[in-house]
């Protein structure tokens, strides 16, 4: 039942994975990126436990969307594969998913706090706070844990594809960030931005119990990068 | 209407832009530097959305000072171009402008706090606090947002060229630092120093509700680098 | 009385030592890793005071387990050698030991606080808090100080090899982390993880007086990597 | 009046200066190291304002100890030269001096706090807190400012060469650390350690209002590296 995805997708997923250590978001082998080919009904994901410096396009694993079966690849797919799959199934506009344990985003996840919108750096990408999920229940942990991690993310966004486009990332309580985008590259960019705004937010909160910035400023920054009136280069 | 600026300016602006990631102030493509040729009535600025590692002198965009028209270059100029233009028009002594989203300076901007003068590292370059602007109004955000961002900076310094020379940088509330200098290279040096003193200030404030350092010490450090009695090498 | 250990062990210990600076855990020559050959009754350890960038496999020192005598090597073994030896003697399952002065783990050690379990990053590797020892007494410092440092670690874990496997690292009060694992490579991985979770924990504690994460989530993360039901790639 | 120092001293001072950016302690051209040749009555110091990446042994400046005259070199010596000279004259055991604006040490200097002894990392090198000077007076700033900076350091240590050996560094209030050692290399090592322990101390103080570590432990760590009973490799 081998299914071959286009080489261009494998290459993009490889490069997106390698962007994680290059951006300083990786400890050891932590983190993973996938990219989907909706026509072929599969996605390509990092294998489990391979060091970034040894990762090759050939090591990537191809997984079937509808049941999670491995359809190509010699290695085991990332342990978080079922979370990625759940997100692809729930949000049709998603083309790539990234998961990291980046330090400052994890700190918010461990404190079970949303990352608040404290400035334009955040508003350029996320149209609202980066929300933190509630805890998973004992039942959700005991069986299909990774798929349930996806479900709690989907539930937090009310399964709304439009919201998933406007807020392309979420913190899983006590765990860390999952981000997504139109493709693998965009999903890892959102992971990098999520970490950067978490870092800025921690320092901002230490400096002041800040009042929120004016909504018109945040709106301006989001809309100059997104939607019909966008004029910010990407 | 093509206008060619001297190659030496393009090269300086290119190198000043590349100093941003080298100094660790860049996330993705964030940040931009420009340099002005007042005789030709134009300035040269980074294009929008080009990764630093691919940036070439040819990619830089030449913009006319008096109306912001692009007069040379294949790419779109930085979204922040109008802010740079406003600063060049208001402050005749400025030869270069830099904007970054560096983490600690942004934290002060997001907390809407001036960076206070806490030591000689700050006083060596900035003759007083690095001030933070007030919020832009809804009207200032709705139309000519980027130019208005320049205006709020100019207003903060009372349009005073002398003050702009003594305090070569400002924090735009909720956004981040804009710095400037005699040329592009100096403007990016001031961005690097702004981030360094913000980082030091955050730790200092965490360690103590500090009394301000003695003014005579700060005066000594500023004047040994600036003005007629300067003897500090640059 | 020269004893030659297998080249493969020397090479593993060399690479594990070099992983310390590569992971950003080293200041100057600080830190050391050893690996044991239980059949030969010896362990191999970094020499004292050699810069990482000059370290060669030939510089490693072979030490006899039962009495600490140097049995091979031109250089003096690490000052902390007796601590390593004590841990090997007390815990039969340990194959490698790492000691660092990594910044955030040391901060917990200096605050004499356990690193609490605040999330899944921690629970993936440590089945409970990374505990901090009590202070050494004046007598324990005056004589056999390094061996006594090992003893206070062993006592903290009740000399229980099973606990040492489940919590592969400890903070020595006012000093820093000692971690271990099945081999030298695993012990340094645990040092890297210990530092990463300490860094996350400091930020988490600053953001919130957090309630502990649900135990079922932590249990799930530990058991998906360890024990008979493990399915997480390494 | 040209005086040539031994090439070995120039080379050591060059390498010690280059260790500053390599250790991450430099912003732009900040920081300087010197080394003394007491027999020749001169010291060699970094020139003012030269970027580290362009610094060559030929750029170093040779300065006469007794009056501060430049006796060899094309460039101006570091602005802080008179502070170095004052320290060499006051403390006969000093062979090298380093000054940096490293972030965490500066934070303590700006908060005008000593770096307290919070653990063995500190006690391995500094036999007591790294003390912070009082403010310089207006008179001390107005004339011979740099030499007076040296005097306030010397006064803080009661001009005691023995204390200068036991505590090889001081924070100048609102300014930053000056460290020293038997030679240039040792002085920069002490600058690196000063920054590392300042970083650890800031995190430790954030985690706990710590009680001081037991003195017998600190004594043990200092004496295993220093004095007649030392057995720690360097």
From TrEMBL, chains A, B, C, D:
Source species, domain of life: Bacteria
Gene that this polypeptide is encoded by: araD
Taxonomic source organism: Streptomyces cylindrosporus
Gene3D superfamilies: Class II aldolase/adducin N-terminal domain
GO molecular function, one term: L-ribulose-phosphate 4-epimerase activity
Statement: the UniProt record of this protein carries the keyword Repeat: no
Span of the signal peptide: none
Similarity annotation: Belongs to the aldolase class II family. AraD/FucA subfamily.
Keyword Kinase: no
Enzyme Commission code(s) on record: 5.1.3.4
Keyword terms, alphabetized: Isomerase, Metal-binding, Zinc
Name the record gives this protein: L-ribulose-5-phosphate 4-epimerase
Xref: InterPro entries: Aldolase_class_II_sugar_metab, Aldolase_II/adducin_N, Aldolase_II/adducin_N_sf
Enzyme superclass (EC): isomerase
Cofactor: Zn(2+)
Catalyses which reaction(s): L-ribulose 5-phosphate = D-xylulose 5-phosphate
Domain Class II aldolase/adducin N-terminal: 11-202
């Amino acid at each position: 039942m081998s299914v071959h995805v286009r080489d261009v997708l494998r290459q993009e997923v490889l490069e997106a994975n390698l962007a994680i250590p290059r951006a300083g978001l990786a400890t050891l082998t932590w983190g993973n990126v996938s990219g989907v080919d909706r026509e072929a009904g599969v996605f390509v994901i990092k294998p489990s436990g391979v060091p970034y410096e040894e990762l090759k396009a050939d090591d990537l694993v191809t997984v079937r969307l509808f049941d999670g079966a491995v359809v190509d690849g010699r290695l085991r797919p990332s342990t978080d594969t079922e979370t990625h799959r759940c997100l692809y199934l729930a949000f049709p506009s998603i083309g790539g998913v990234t998961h990291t344990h980046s330090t400052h985003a994890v700190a918010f996840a461990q404190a079970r706090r949303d990352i608040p919108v404290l400035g334009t750096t955040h508003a350029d990408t996320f149209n609202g706070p980066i929300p933190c999920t509630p805890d998973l229940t004992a039942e959700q942990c005991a069986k299909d844990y990774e798929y349930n991690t996806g479900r709690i993310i989907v539930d937090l966004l009310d399964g709304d594809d439009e919201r998933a486009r406007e807020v392309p990332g979420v913190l899983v309580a006590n765990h860390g960030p999952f981000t997504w985008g139109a493709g693998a590259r965009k999903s890892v960019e959102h992971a990098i931005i999520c970490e950067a705004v978490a870092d800025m937010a921690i320092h901002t909160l230490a400096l002041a119990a800040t009042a929120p910035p004016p909504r018109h400023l945040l709106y301006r920054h989001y809309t100059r990068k997104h939607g019909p009136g966008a004029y910010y280069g990407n």
